[in-house]
Structures are given as structure tokens and as C-alpha cells.
Amino acid sequence: MSNSNSITVPIPSHGYDMHTHSLRSDGTLTPSELVQRAHVAGVRVLALTDHDVTDGIAEAQDAACRLGIRLIAGVEISVTWQSQTLHIVGLNINLERPELQQGLARLREFRQWRAEEIGRRLRKKRIEGAYEGAARLAQGTIISRTHFARFLVDQGYVRGSQQAFKQFLARGKPGHVPGRWATLEEAVQWIVSAGGQAVVAHPARYKLSVGKLRQLLGEFRDCGGAAIEVISGSHTPDANRHFSDVAKEHDFLASAGSDYHGPEKTWTDLGRLPALPDGCIPVWQDWDIKNTLKPQINADI
Ligand code: AMP
Ligand code: MN
Ligand code: MN
Ligand code: MN
């Protein structure tokens, strides 16, 4: 007879979420709360992918062990490519690798300077105390534009986050500071050096022309990139379909992630992702995770 520790069950594809944030970057849940919520939502394999930092992984890992779900160590690296900011997710990374950690530390230094510069630029628009306000909301972790957006909402300058970006923080707006993030090659190299797989995050968000997308994917492949996020919580269903075709056409593995930032944020919730379309090869296909997990009592929630 099997007991609950030896029964193994295949994981339904919606049981994977390869892109989430905690309050160690611009999410609002602690790593433990995030894992708890993912567990309740039926996620069985969860990647924590905070922006430019891996500080939350240890806490998430502990929570995941307690709940019997699999935590994948991840990170979402900010990249400047042709004057545009792109995000490259690294999955299944070894956190100890110095090349990755030194690279991320450099990005956090730029991020700190940028936060102060955003504060100075907003002051010129008669918005006082934005840097201090954003830093307070960040609670000692990296300061993201998301924290500036929350400050602008809290202080009544705008009605919602979207408006904060549209009016102040998006490219070309008064509080925007052009990125000097990692190059595409550096980001992929750091991930690969840490034994991980590099994934182009939410490709539909960059609004690239067909030619530029081809160029990006070519360069990404040449420097060791493995996958693209076919399913993203921030994609439309059409975009999911389109990038499923792109992944197949260009022979990339496919990833799926909610880009969850917390219960207040729009986009999609944890554990609510559509399955990867037929013919896509999941980025997790060679990971040692299949049939290794205890069955979940509440996996059908
Ligand atoms: P940063 O890395 O500090 O430049 O901040 C980028 C983060 O801001 C993204 O990861 C999103 O979480 C958030 N963000 C970007 N654009 C928008 C938007 N239009 N509305 C709401 N949040 C956004
Ligand atoms: Mn974010
Ligand atoms: Mn992103
Ligand atoms: Mn993200």
C-alpha cells in the first residue's frame, strides 16, 4: 500500500508558475506568504524571480519544504538592449555563484542611484519627498518604480499605479531615468554561469517589430538563452498564442509565469495560468521534478 509520502502524481501544467515576486523586490507578500498562497492555489512548482536580487529564496525554500511544493531559485534581471529595458528571467540558478551575485550587486548599485535621480527629477515637478517615500515603501530592499508609483498614489498625485507610470515613470515621462542595466549577453552569461536557464520574460510587453524580435532572439540564442515566456500573466490570450508559435519556430523552450506581485495587483493570480499550447517544450522538461512531489490535498482549488 502506498502512503502519502510515496504516492507520486504528474503535475498538471497549470501547477507551474515560473515568474513571481515577493517584497524582497516590488511584490507585496513576504516569500513565505507567497509560497503559502501558491500552495493554496494549487501551484506545485514555483519560481521566485525577484528583480535583480535573490535574497528571498532561502525563506521561500523553507516555506516550500514545509508545504511539500517545489521552489525553483530564480531572478528577473534588468537588461538594456538597444536603449530599451528588457527582462531576462533566470531559472534553477545556483545562488552561490559569484559571477551572478556580483552582476546583480552592480545592478542594485545603479538602481539605488536611479532611485535618487528619480526623486530629484520629480522634485523639479514639485513633488517633494518621492525618494524618501519610495525608500520607506521598499522597506530596505531594492527600490523599484513600483514603489514610486505607490508613493504617488498614496500622496494623491495620481489615482492609480497605471496613471503613475503613464504620467511620471514610463519612458519619456518626467520621472523616467534611462536604464544602464546589464547587457543581454551579461545577463544570460550570469545565469548560465550559475547553472540556470535564461528566459525572455513577457516578450509581448516590448512591442518589438518582427525584425527587432528576430534580432533579439538571434542574439539571445547566440549568447546561450534557452527559453521564452510563452504564457505570461501580463499577456493577452492572443499574445500567448503568438509567442507559442514564435517559440516553436525559433526552437526555444517555453516558460509560463504569472508575474505575480501581490493580491492587490491586476494581471493574473497564482495558479491561474493556461496550459502551455501543444507542441511547446516546457523549460522544466529536463528538471528533476516530475513525479517527485507529494500529492496535494487541495490541488484542485
Ligand atoms: P523598475 O525595474 O524599477 O524599472 O520597475 C519595473 C516594474 O514596474 C515592473 O516590474 C512592473 O512591476 C512595474 N511596471 C512597469 N510598468 C508598469 C505599468 N505601466 N503599470 C504598473 N506597473 C508597471
Ligand atoms: Mn515588478
Ligand atoms: Mn518584468
Ligand atoms: Mn516580473
Please give a quick description of this structure.
The protein is an alpha/beta fold.
Describe the fold and architecture.
There is one protein chain. This protein is an alpha/beta fold. Helices cover 37% and strands 14% of the residues. The protein is built from nine helices and seven strands; from the N terminus they run βαβαββαααααβαβαβ. The chain has a seven-stranded mixed sheet with strand order 1-2-3-4-5-6-7. A hairpin with a 2-residue loop joins strand 3 and strand 4 (84-91). It is globular and about 55 Å long. Mean pLDDT is 92; it is low at 1-6 and 292-301. Bound molecules: adenosine monophosphate and manganese (II) ion (3 copies). One manganese (II) ion binds at residues 76, 87, 201-202.
Distance between the termini: 27 Å
Approximately what portion of the residues adopt beta-strand conformation? Answer: 5-15%
Q: Can you tell me the overall shape?
A: globular
Question: What is the alpha-carbon Rg in Å?
Answer: 19 Å
- What is the percent of helical residues? 25-40%
> What is the makeup of the main sheet?
7 strands, mixed
Number of helices: 9
| Average pLDDT metric | 92
Q: What structural class do the secondary elements suggest?
A: alpha/beta
What are the salient characteristics of this protein?
single chain, 301 residues, alpha/beta, seven-stranded mixed β-sheet, 9 helices, 14% strand, globular, disordered N terminus, disordered C terminus, binds adenosine monophosphate, binds manganese (II) ion
